[in-house]
Amino acid sequence: MSTALLIFVLVMHSRINALQEETNVITHQDREITNLTNQMEKNILDMETGQRGYVITGNDKYLEPYLSGRIELQNNYDKLLSWSTEDSTQANRLANLKTNVDHWITSSSEPLIALKREGRDRDVLTQYQTDDGINQMDQIRSQISEYRTSMTANTDQLIARQAERNTLLIELLYLIWGLIAVVTISAAWLMSRTISQPIRNITESILGLTSSRNLMSRITITSNDEISDLGHVTNELLSSQQERIELQEHTNNMMSKYQGIHEIESLSDIFLSNMADKLHYPYAALYVRQEENAQDLMIRTAVFAGDAQLNIRTSFQMGEGLVGQCAKEAKLMEFHQLPENYVQVFSSLGSAPPHSLLLFPICFLGEVLAVAEIAAFSPLTPIQISYVEAITEDFGAAINSTLNTMKIESLLTESQRMNEELQVYTEELQTQSEELQMQAESLQVLNGKLEERQLIADEKTVEAQRAQAELITYAEILERSTRYKSEFLANMSHELRTPLNGILLLSEFLKENNSESLTTDELEYAQAIHSSGEDLLKLINDILDLSKVEAGKLNIEAEAVNVTEIPESVMQYFGEIAREKHVDLQVHVEDSVPDMIFTDAQRLRQIINNLLSNALKFTSQGSVQLEIRMANEEELLETERLTEEAFLAFSVQDTGIGISEDKQSIIFEAFQQAEKNTERHYGGTGLGLSITKELSMLLGGHIVVESELGRGSTFTVYLPVQYNPFSQHEQPITKDQVSDDWEISESLRIAATAESVPSVEYDILKDKHVLLVDDDDRNLFALSKVLKAQGLKVSIAKNGEQALLELKQSSAIDLILMDIMMPVMDGYEAIQQIRLMEEYQNLPIIALTARAMSEDRKRIINAGATEYMSKPINMEHLLVIMRMLLSNKS
Question: Please, which residues bridge with residue 368 across strands?
Fold first, then answer.
């Protein structure tokens, strides 16, 4: 009888274990499928967010979540497919889902990324407007939801079938029990009632395994024999089964509470509170891995039943303390028999120290995201520890999702704040730009008044021919007027260039976007501000040049110029502009043109640049061509320039709007254009052609125009091969005499902006100490910002006296940037005083001035300056000069 019962119990125990394993498999399958579908939704969200982030910012960092999400999506898809191999319907749904995801990648995501990489922002916008990516993503999410719902239904069916098997087991149990009852009745005379009752209790308890409502009952044991051993085993089996079911229910309940949480502190509190409900620990803390002050730290985010008065560490570095070591090794750590003063667990009734400490890592995809620390009065059971290990992965996924959500919200808030600050700053710059425009208009009015005075002086000069005395008097008046005009223009140039310098420097600093915090629109705003400042600078230079020509103060510095270098310089300067306008730019030099000519290189470059700028501005389609050739006798005869000297013809031909014949004579007058609607449509001041005409005449040449309205124009400048106003340069030009002035500006620009500049050149500036001397706070702010961004140390002085005091107090100055026009002590006197100091006789000094007259450079160099630059400052040019001077010094 005992043997039969033992066999029966073993068979039933085996069957119950089999049922439990099936239950675990079904539960594990359901959890895995739910987790994998959630992960796929997250992968798709990461890909969509990363793609949009890259398209918006152009930053490759946003492609990292896109690429990693794409790889993880494929891995999760393969894992999910393995669960659906036996179900063709579900496999087909997954295949359709994968097809839609691949279609979204190939038709929407990858094309947008490719367009952004190519810088085709307009095509990106067009793609967004016509793209069906949003509907595709909605369909993908709907398919994932349908798949998850279908798999859940399958799981319910499996559970129903398992319930049927349980019913069959019960029926079998009743059958076996009937047989046992018959045998028991037969042997009733041989067994006492004390033996039959425990067996009945055991039978009822075993039947209770099929229903969770009966798991709370336990067998009462009154004997000490084999039946009592069976009762103990059955009680343990009931307790184990009850604990497993409760832990599984608790795990599912915790997962549901993580939904919709967007703050890491709230998520941590929920985790510790729910863990405490199940494990019944009296004290716990949670540390989440976060980056703070460029350090990788484990920061405490929640405490369960903590002491607010106790001074407990709130953060640990990786490997620091038990928390840091647990995070570093990524493994569970358990300690027993803690010291009494380790920590106190207290309530209103008293306090006591815990005796057991458990630390376990919380990981996601193999990376430690948090560490939980639990203190208890007794060690956790193996089942409780297994429960702890089982819930960490799901909680790790919740932590990762919450941290990513917090980062996105933080970046969005910061972006909005910076956008508001930039908008305020842009409005300020716009206000300053309007003030500069008003000043320029005032300058134009004053210039008109000066011209009127010049006309009056000319009339009086004609009248003065009647009397020698009046001629001398009016000549002196005219000379003073010209001197006042030049001085006025120089002073106005200084006043306009000083604020303009700050605008150009700060807008260029914004364009560089070193912090990568500006949006595409904000970078375009900075570019527009910088471009407007450059246009204003060009206008100031044109007015000064025109005034110098009118006053006869424009000096011609003739030198040998290499004609073969002109095409390359033109393509470097205007090539990008032509490509942006889709205009074909060509430069042709005839073989008969000599390699070198003798003329003013700067003025020749100014003539060519003015003509090409006009041609590109008024040509919206077609081509612009610069032709350099020898002028023939017929051309020179028509222009009344037929001499024994050889002339070059510089022809700029375009396919632009053209000029009517009756307007061709006025376009060379200052502030005149062919048509009023031309000025409104294309902009401009009308100074370029006027200056070009005057410069051509100063160089001994002439300019003519041929044009037809609607079919384009051809401007031709005839210049002598040998500029020789005093017959002092009749000797032939040699290679040693060729000036490289034509290439100076372009070579400096290329050297300063090329990405291939060796890093050692930039190291020359790093940690060097520069003294910046200027009385204008705007220039001090703008220049110091740019210099510090290059790794330089910057000291500031607002006049010459402060600069001398700074040099006496510090012997570590490597270079001085000196403004000229300052109160108290100007730049001339300050430079002279510095050169009198023995220790600073060779110190590099770069003079920065807004005065643009030619005599200013000579005076500054004679005062002792090493180099000279006019404002607004070209930062690329300035940095190249600083590197050169500091390199020579070192």
Answer: 363
